[in-house]
Design goal:
ATP binding, ABC_transporter-like_ATP-bd, disordered C terminus, P-loop_NTPase, 22% strand, alpha/beta, membrane, 6-stranded mixed beta sheet, 4-stranded antiparallel beta sheet
């Protein structure tokens, strides 16, 4: 059996700003080549912290206390900074959450798309520009010649997000981390972006870690899912299996709390307080602490 592309083993982290409060609690998961895995949970669940740890961009106030993140057998957490920089961007890339702030407002799109192609792939300016045009066509942007000459503020939010997606796939990475890439977009554009990411992932055979708070998004795009709460893995497995036959009461409650397209007039059911009480109890037991400290 071949080794997974990414393996996260016993990853724990604390916040030094909050007197060592746990942020991640013994997180373990694996991602195969070409797999799309959703990291799902409410705010503060730890999903973005996992993504930042993988990308080597954890804030200084967050400290990893144990565990490993191995990429093709190489531990990213213990890798020299220069070697990690060579991997990030070329083998692992990011689709950021907010297209408004992720692009440099003072540079035209052409430069922002071609820098990596020239610096990391050694393409000439002419070849990099040709590749950038192809990338814009691949993400279904009309008139790519015009768009290359634009500044970010001259484009819509959906077009900016398409450019970020093109940039993420530009260097043919083995893994793309998508950090809630549809959050800042309206519902119609969200659906288009999800289809686009899935289409590119399938065309290139790229693995994707998709960070989201929305189980509906997970159902549309993810092969597997990891559900988190307060930095702890609550449930994980094949998406279809988890959604059809959830084992944990929190998973069942989240599914019940979401809107149903087959029942548009049905009301939403909030997650009951006793479910959160049970989660706090489980986490307190795993931490070896009283529930009041969670």
């Amino acid at each position: 059996m071949s080794q997974p592309l990414i393996s996260i083993s016993g990853l724990s982290a604390v916040s030094d700003r909050d007197a060592g409060a746990p942020i991640l609690r013994d997180v373990s998961l694996a991602l195969e080549r070409g797999e799309v895995r959703g990291l799902v949970g409410e705010s503060g669940a730890g999903k973005s912290t996992i993504a930042k740890a993988l990308l080597g961009i954890l804030p200084r106030t967050v400290r990893v206390t144990s565990g490993a993140i191995t990429f093709e057998g190489r531990d990213l957490l213990r890798m020299p900074p220069k070697q990690l920089r060579n991997i990030i961007g070329s083998e692992i890339s990011l689709i950021p959450q907010d297209p408004q702030t992720a692009l440099n407002p003072g540079r035209r799109i052409e430069g922002q798309l071609t820098d990596g192609l020239r610096l990391k792939r050694g393409l000439s300016s002419k070849d990099a520009r040709h590749r950038a045009l192809k990338l814009l066509e691949e993400v279904h942007i009309r008139d790519p010649e015009r768009v290359l000459g634009c500044y970010p503020h001259e484009l819509s939010g959906g077009m900016r997000q398409r450019i970020l997606i093109a940039a993420a796939f530009a260097l043919e990475p083995k893994l793309v981390v998508a950090d809630e890439p549809t959050t800042a977009l309206d519902v119609t554009v969200q659906k288009q972006i999800l289809r686009l990411i899935r289409g590119l992932q399938e065309a290139h055979g790229t693995a994707v870690i998709f960070v989201t708070h929305d189980l509906g998004v997970v159902a549309q795009i993810c092969d597997t899912v990891t559900l988190l709460y307060a930095g702890k893995v609550i449930e994980q497995g094949r998406t279809a299996d988890v959604l059809a036959n959830p084992h944990h009461i929190y998973t069942r409650s989240l599914i019940a709390a979401g809107p149903r397209y087959d029942r548009p007039n049905a009301g939403l059911t909030p997650v009951p307080d006793d479910v959160f009480a049970e989660l706090r109890r489980e986490i307190a037991i795993s931490d070896g602490k009283e529930a009041r400290h969670v």
